[in-house]
Amino acid sequence: MADKQPLIQPDRGQDAISVHLVNRDGFPEWKKSLSASQRAALDAQKFDGGGYQVGIVPDGDGWFAVGGVANPDELSSWCMAKLAESLPEGTYRRAGGEPGPALHGWQTGQYVFDRYKKPERPVGPRVLLTKDVKAIDGALAEAQAVCLIRDLVNTPAEDMGPAALEEQCEALAKTHAARLEVTRGDTLEQEYPMVHAVGRAAARHHAPRIMHLTWGKESDPVLAIVGKGVCFDSGGLDVKSSSGMLLMKKDMGGAAHAIALAGLVMAAHLPVRLHLLVPAVENAISSNSFRPGDVLQTRKGLTVEIGNTDAEGRLILGDALQRASEENPELMLDFATLTGAARVALGPEYPALMTRRDETAAALIAAGKAHDDEPWRLPLPDVYREWLTSDIADTNNAHGNAFAGASVAGLFLDKFVGEGIDWAHFDTFAWRPQAKPGRPKGGEAYGLRAAWHMLQARFGGG
Fold this sequence. Notes:
Largest sheet: 9 strands, mixed
Low-confidence stretches: none
Distance between the termini: 23 Å
Radius of gyration: 24 Å
Number of domains: 2
Helix content: 25-40%
CATH topology of the largest domain: Aminopeptidase
Shape: elongated
CATH class of the largest domain: Alpha Beta
Mean pLDDT: 97
CATH architecture of the largest domain: 3-Layer(aba) Sandwich
CATH superfamily of the largest domain: Zn peptidases
Number of helices: 15
C-alpha cells in the first residue's frame, strides 16, 4: 500500500459519492426520506440496515451508497470496511458525519496480496474523504504497517528467509537513517549461540543471523522491540506433521510485527532510543541439526537442555532478549508466533499478552480495546517455573506435560529478560483463518495497534 495513492484524503469539498450509514433499528425511519423508486431499489437488494450490508441507491443521474452498521454514532475500525471492499472505484464521503476510526478498515479492506497472482478483475482505489486532516497521516501509517505485516507473512519461506528479513531491516534503516548491525557465521555462534544452533541446519542462502537496528538520541529512554524470525519451522528433528508445517511460513510473524512497529516509532519521531532485534533462522532438518537432549550455551551464560526441537522460537528469542536487556530499556516488547497453546486458549483473534507489571498490561489492553485490537492477558505463574527444571542443565526449553503451554513458554523467556525490566510478551497468531470485512484471510497483525497506541501514550508521541 505504501506505493499506491493514499486511500484517505482531505475533504476540501471536491466531488464525491455520498455514503450513508444506518443500522437496522434506525433504517425504517431513514428510509422514509427516500423516493418510492429509491426504496424499491433497496428492497430489491434486500437491504434492511443489517451489519456490513451494502446498498446502491439511484439519485438523479448518479447514485449514493448506504451501509449497515451496528451504531452510526459509535463507529469501529471495521464499520466501513465492507463498503471499501464492495464499492466501485471512486471518491467517497460519509454523509452527516466523519469516518473516525473507520478510516483504518477502509484502507485495510482494500488490501490484496498480488505478488504471485494478479486479480482477475482488479478494482481501482476507493478513496475516502475526511475533514479531520490531522488524523490522516497517522491513519495512513498505521494501515501501511498492518499491510506490511500481511505482505511479509503471506510471502512463502523461499522468498522470505533470513536474508529477506535482513533486507527489510536494511530498508527500514535506510528510510529512517538508523544504524543496522547484522551478525552471522562464527561471530553469531560466539555471541548468540542459541540463534546459531537453531538455524545452522538451513541451506547457506537461509543461514541464521540477527539484525540489531538502533535509532534515536542516546539521551532518550530506551525502548527495545524484539521479534521472532523463524522463517520456516519444520519442527527440527522433532518434526511436525505435514499439516502442521503447512502454515509455517508465518512463523516469522513476530519479526514482521516488530519491524512494522519499529517503523511506526521512527516515522512518528517518538522520543525514544530504539533498539530493534530480529533473530532470523530457518528451523531445518539436516545432519547438523540441533538434537533433543543437546545442551546449548546461551548469550546470558545459562545452559539449556533441549526437550523439544520444535520449541525453537523461545531459544532464539532468549539470546535476543538478553542482548536487549544489556541496554537497560525502560520498556521491552517482544512479538512471537510462539505456542499452539495460546491459540487453543484464545483462538486466532486474541493475542496472548504476558507482562511483569500490572500497569503495563492494563495500558496495553486499554489501548487495544480503544483501537479494535484487544490482547488477552495470561499469567506468568511462579508455581510453574519448576516445570522447566533440567537434571543436567540450568533449564529445559520445554516442559513434560500438556498444561499451561503459553505461560510456561513465557516463563522460559522471562529467564533472559534482565531483572527489574518492564517487559511485555505478545504470543500472536499472525494469521487470519477466515476473512472478515477489512481483514482478508492470510497474514494478519494482532497486537500491533495495541502496542503502538500504548507507546504513543507512554512516550508522548500522540
